[in-house]
Queue: 3 jobs
Job 1
Amino acid sequence: MLTYATSGFSEDILSDSFCQTWFGVGIVVGMVSIGTSNFLILLRLWVLWDRKTRLVLVTLSLFLVTQITAIVCTTYVVSSMMPLVVFEPYLHSCILTQKVNFVILWTPGIVFEFMIFVTTWWNALDQPLPQHAKMAKVMYRDGSIYFFVLFGLRLLNLILSIVSPLSLMFLGVFFIWSACNVTLTRLIINSRRAAVEAEESLFIDVYTYSPRSWPLLPRQGSCVSENYELQGKGPDIEICTRLSSSVTSVAT
């Protein structure tokens, strides 16, 4: 709809109210989409941090504060922008007739992502050998890509909103929206892949057979499947204990 309204390729004559509605909807849905992506990243990080209460509370509080601020700022920007959006018949496009203060639209997201990035790497340095090594590798690699891409694009949009002419105000908006979804999808797919690999590795460790076909004891700690962590659950120590006991009795 936004392409239809702003590309200039359509020969339809649109109303100003149509332009105002879809500009507002586009900004709101875009900010909600990015906020949802940030929360999904936060859920993955909580798993990686073994749900340490202090870290969870601090990052959750930061997320709530920045998102509430973003909602207030988005509401203000959309309400200020509405009267300034009109349809230009000569260009066959919806246009913004005057600059709006988009600086406040990008600032909360920049603050949140920077603080999460610092917290993640501070925790990584504090615990350089996390228990869930495969997931940690995925999160630190793809999470860093996610951070640098989104942080860079937010910064670009922030700079454009300050120094650019009116015609370039929306230059980076759709880049950050699409890049957010692409990088988040990459992270989730890779974390799922790490989960499958961890589950297969656990299966091989537990059901290893000797030449006499007697099951051997699993390696110490191998029963704590990383897949539990990737699915948002804690390691099932009771199941591990029963499994080790049953394998011991069979081997005996």
Note: The chain has two domains: 2-201, 202-251.
Job 2
Amino acid sequence: MPEIPSVPALWHFPARPASVMRARHTVARALPKGLLPGLTDDLGLLTSELVTNAIRHGSHREDDLVELVLWPADGHYWIAVSDRGPTRPLAAPARPDADAETGRGLFLVDRLAAAWGVRTRPVRGTSVIAGLPIRRGG
């Protein structure tokens, strides 16, 4: 009989800047004890970057929501951040100028994540999914 996978954690946040910190804290509280602090920090940074991008580039109305899913699978923690916007994120990170104040989000995701990608949602919008290897403290 196959092993039943864990149910992913799912949250919705208003597409507003204040939701970035709420999402980061929500993910930190959802993680089990015993993870290395670096993994918790990296998952928090991925969450912040992906939620920020979804709010900034994917939401166009005040009542839009950003969806966040977190789940462990195949030795990784996976984060999927989705929005209903029509704009598809870049498939590769941009290289902003040294003086640029924004534009480093996907560059950070690319450096931190073991794997990441952009998926079109079946009805409308996109999801950006990133995974980090699980490293247990101990």
Note: The chain has one domain: 9-133.
Job 3
Amino acid sequence: MTTLLHIDSSIRSTGSVSRQLTAEFVSKWTIARPGDTVVARDLARDPVPHLTEQMMGAFFTPADSRSPEQAKTVALSDTLVDELFAADVIVIGVPMYNFSISSTLKAWIDHVTRAGVTFRYTETAPVGLVSGKKVYVFTASGGVYSEGPAQSMNFQETYLRVALGFIGLTDVTVVRSEGLAMGEPSVQAALTHSGRMIDELVSV
């Protein structure tokens, strides 16, 4: 049985294309694989707090040396890390905000990127410890950033690939929905393309 971790990061509760696509993917996945388990995390409804000095201090304190307050501080991060390790498949909805990802998704990444837990340093280079998982990223953007002059402004996908790869998540498939602010024909073309990709990915 497969465990699928479904993460949404759009601040919009309605009208969100990234939410629409992750929901469609998860629905079709579970229809094709009814025995699988889905764990959902909505970073807009239940935002992860941004890092503080106290949190960082707790992260770098050995578990058996933490104060009760530090243990409480680390609890949510530990839960997020446990969800990540338990998942076989990870689905992330990622709208583009000002050329990058939402601050809530960045906060989630900050909580699951922990030295000695999800990556470790070696004498030559850092090594990711979260391996053997498949990641599907559904991006949404008002403009087109996968090609042309605007490609250099796409910090959304490039950052995600680096951040996920750093902790060992290197098997990443990105489904782009672009041009969503460029008129209804562009929207329909993007949704049709993404829908076809979802069908192909789910059927594998």
Note: The CA atoms of residues 58 and 122 lie 22 Å apart.
